[in-house]
Amino acid sequence: MTRLILSLWLGLFPAVLIAESIVLGLSSDQVRITTQFDGSDILIFGAVKREAPIPKNTELDVIITVAGPSEPLTVRRKSRQFGIWVNSEAVEVDAAPSFYAVAASGKLEDVIKDIEDLRYKISVERAIRSVGAPMTIRNAQLFSDAVIRIRQRENLYQQLDNQVAVDQQTLFRTAIRMPANLTEGDYATRIFLARGGTIISQYETTIDVRKVGLERWLFSLSRTQPLLYGLMSLAIAIAAGWGASAAFRWVRIR
Predict the structure, then answer these.
(1) Is the pTM of this model over 0.85?
(2) Total structural domains within the chain
């Protein structure tokens, strides 16, 4: 019995030796949204820590994802009825990240197997969770595809193939462009190491995205005192219109 246990332990020992873990760095773990905010580049870099020599049989691949706060969506399809366009069908999307970027050291479909993508929900398509569509709706996947297509146009969803640089199978780095139209919240950042299409290690952290200054005050005011916010917006619009009219009259007189 003792010999059997020893044999099993020795059989597992090489797997322990080749274990690889992640040491991560970020150029900034905070993004501050001001009135002049037009986007930000986040540099994500790190290294692989090992207890044994680099395996020779497979190359190391690195995948990095950044996901904004998720929210439920109702996606509607319009159809032409009696000469007008109306909402005819709707599908509930259980959760869709407000921002999602996935960067990989190669083409994503070549870097990980589909079963690994399904398990860890890495690709843009797998990051969206959709509840069951009504039986009357055919091709329900088209509704999720529409969300992806629209948010890709707004640069909110990004698939960045061949955008993670890996040096000597030890150091890695990439840059993620955060657009101006970000949602406040914690942005979950995940780093995966893969060999032969299989995930062998992962690391998770967060990037804090918050409005500050005047932007923060206006946002809070719109939520806590909507009536005052509306009256103030109306007063600013009237003042701006009156100022433009006065300036135009002054130019005509001159």
Answers:
(1) no
(2) 2
